[in-house]
TrEMBL record:
The lineage of its organism: Bacteria, Pseudomonadati, Pseudomonadota, Alphaproteobacteria, Hyphomicrobiales. It comes from Ensifer adhaerens. This is Bleomycin resistance protein. Transmembrane segments: none annotated. It holds the Pfam family Glyoxalase. It comes from the Bacteria. InterPro entries: Glyas_Bleomycin-R_OHBP_Dase (IPR029068), Glyas_Fos-R_dOase_dom (IPR004360), GlyoxalaseI/FosfomycinResist (IPR050383), VOC_core (IPR037523).
Length: 139
């Protein structure tokens, strides 16, 4: 039997406008950029994990036979979702930061277990959420 998975190392979202994604995730959200490859992708550090933003028009292309990193083609269409881990004490500050940057808050929810989260969108239309870890009984 295989050992248990230890967590999620990376999460991927898709955006056709990599410049816009870089400005939003790096500028508005303040994530540290790890690397960028032209119009194909931009990667950010996010806590102990990594957020990958891919251009779906580029990642569906198969790698060339001599590619040094033959990553299989992948992609997604439509709006994705991911949730940022934010302490309960910091939720209001994050909400205010986003609103000040002109980002609309779509919903602010108090869940049945008492945890709180709120939702907003990136420039590509992906649904993003900031939630306290108690939402999933973490911490």
């Amino acid at each position: 039997m295989a050992p248990a998975l230890e967590g999620i190392l990376e999460t991927a979202l898709y955006a056709e406008d990599i410049d816009g994604a870089e400005a939003f995730y790096g500028g508005v959200l303040g994530l540290e950029k790890i690397t960028r490859a032209g119009k194909r992708h931009v990667f950010f550090r996010c806590g102990p994990g990594v957020l990958l933003i891919f251009n779906p028009a580029e990642t569906v292309k198969p790698p060339s036979p001599d590619a040094p990193l033959p990553v299989p083609p992948h992609g997604s269409t439509g709006q994705g979702h991911m949730c940022f881990h934010v302490s309960a004490e910091a939720l209001d500050a994050w909400k205010a930061k986003l609103e000040t940057a002109g980002v609309a808050i779509e919903a602010d929810i108090r869940w049945p277990n008492g945890a709180r989260s709120f939702y907003f969108r990136d420039p590509a239309g992906n649904s993003l959420e900031c939630a306290e870890p108690g939402l999933w009984s973490i911490e």
